[in-house]
Design goal:
By secondary structure, the protein is α+β, with helices and mostly antiparallel strands. The chain contains eight helices and five strands. The longest helix is centred in the N-terminal third of the chain and has 20 residues.
Length: about 220
């Protein structure tokens, strides 16, 4: 996990906890009315306008987190994180990852997205930095690497929109992970969200292999 990813996640949680304490009576009502754990998380997230990660932290909070001393510590931490990060969840709502999914790359259905990426960057999709080759050849080689379990290409989607790529290439015993976000979908937090989602995906495809992030997000 990168420093940016850690800081973003921690700020989501800290901000959610402070908001929950300010609206604790409403939060408690939402929890009591929920049928189960997942429904409670959804209810809290909807009530407070926070991420699923933040809502989960609220539900799991220990009672000593309600003390004035702990609230002061949380407020100080939030101030530090706000100074360290240049965007808020409200400004980049996609950064929470709640609405983003990753699915396997389709050679036929996603060639258009890969063409946009290649036109912009002008380099091969394998992470080598070599000049881009013929588009069909690039995709054919990528499909071969995926079939040989040497790579995984994922498409980041929100609803029906394809917003970018996560590329994972197995190189010298490490998974070289690169994130590319379509120019029309930048500055919304998709890069951060894709990186968050990619950790579990890469761990599933390459169990026990260290993950190295080369480009956290475009």
């Amino acid at each position: 996990m990168t420093d940016l990813d850690l800081a973003t996640a921690r700020r989501d949680i800290t901000d959610a906890l402070l908001t929950a304490l300010e609206r604790r009576h409403e939060v408690l009502d939402a929890i009591v009315d929920a049928e189960n754990h997942d429904e409670a998380v959804d209810a809290i997230a909807s009530l407070l306008g926070k991420s699923q990660l933040g809502a989960q932290a609220i539900l799991d909070m220990k009672l000593d987190g309600l003390t004035k001393d702990q609230r002061r510590k949380n407020q100080a931490e939030l101030s530090d994180l706000n100074n360290a990060l240049t965007f808020t969840l409200a400004e980049r709502p996609a950064s929470s990852g709640d609405t983003l999914d990753l699915r396997p790359f389709s050679a036929d259905g996603d060639a258009d997205l890969f063409a946009v990426r290649t036109d912009e960057l002008g380099v091969a999709g394998d992470g080598s930095g070599a000049p881009a080759g013929n588009l069909d050849d690039e995709i054919s080689k990528a499909t071969g690497r995926v079939d040989n379990e040497e790579a995984v290409w994922l498409v980041a989607v929100e609803g029906a929109d394809k917003v970018g790529f996560v590329f994972g290439e197995l190189t010298d015993g490490e998974v070289d992970v690169r994130i590319w976000i379509h120019p029309e979908h930048r500055k919304h937090g998709y890069g951060t969200a894709a990186l968050r989602k990619s950790r579990s995906e890469m761990a599933a495809y390459f169990p026990g292999v260290p993950m190295v992030v080369r480009a956290p997000g475009a």
